[in-house]
Design brief:
With 253 residues, this protein is an alpha+beta fold.
């Protein structure tokens, strides 16, 4: 049977650039084959391959020859972001803040920003401890189960929060992760009351994190967090660390 999905000629006024952006938004959450990309953005496989080919040639996407999957290249986007004057000014504050937090606590610190239903590590300060979590810039964490995600969500008003919670798919995380919008909303409200969010073995077994929202020019642009092994970060210490992060953010921004 012929493919009944849209082709380049019958997608109406949607431009090639817009379709390319839609593909990037999908690949920001997970790798996919050309056929999967076609289904996600409602074009046939041939059209998806043309779009993906352009993105690969431009350096924004990479193709795995073994799996036939396409993956976004985060470093290509960071190169654009870091050259923006506003980002440079922000990093001038965030970099020293993360160094202070890690120096005082011994734990890894990071800045994560929201991207298409996930949180992406934009800046990372590693711990000097022998036993630590090895992360990297570009790490992606689900919003629903991560401390950085809930810290971002706690800044939203009730209506906006409900709309966002309804768009999440709640995949990923451990058995401790929220399984739906009602459970997640309750956890967000708990974080809102405290001023920071906790993740105890929700994203990864054996890993804990505490995060507070980073507000810049009147809006939340992401979260600042401390993370480490759960064995070294029991609940009482997480609460202390959360208060420290929130206090440092208030004094810095």
């Amino acid at each position: 049977m012929p493919d009944k999905r849209s082709t380049d000629d019958d997608l109406g006024n949607m431009s090639h650039i817009r379709r390319g952006l839609m593909v990037l938004e999908q690949l920001a959450t997970r790798s996919a084959t050309a056929a999967e990309v076609g289904r996600l953005v409602n074009v046939n496989r041939s059209s998806a391959l043309r779009i993906l080919g352009d993105l690969v040639d431009a350096g924004y996407v990479a193709r795995d020859d073994a799996t036939k999957e396409f993956t976004i290249r985060p470093e290509r986007f960071y190169g654009l972001i870091v050259n923006h004057p506003a980002h440079e000014q922000l990093m001038e504050k965030i970099g020293p803040l993360l160094k202070r937090l890690t120096g005082e606590t011994g734990e890894a610190s990071l800045f994560a920003a929201p991207a298409n239903g996930s949180m992406v590590y934009v800046h990372y300060q590693p711990s000097s401890e022998v036993l630590t979590l090895r992360e990297r810039i570009g790490t992606v964490r689900p919003i629903h189960c991560s401390a950085v995600g809930r810290a971002y969500l706690l800044t939203m008003d009730g209506k906006t929060l409900d709309e966002v919670l309804g768009t999440l798919d709640y995949s990923g995380g451990t058995d401790r992760a929220a399984k739906g919008p009602l459970e997640l909303r309750r956890r967000v409200e708990e974080a809102r009351s405290a001023g920071f969010a906790l993740d105890i073995d929700e994203t990864l077994v054996g890993a804990s994190c505490v995060a507070a929202p980073l507000n810049h020019h009147g809006r939340c642009i992401g979260s600042i967090a401390l993370s480490g092994p759960t064995s070294r970060m029991p609940p009482d210490r997480l609460v202390e660390l959360g208060a420290l992060v929130a206090r440092e953010l208030t004094q810095t921004f």
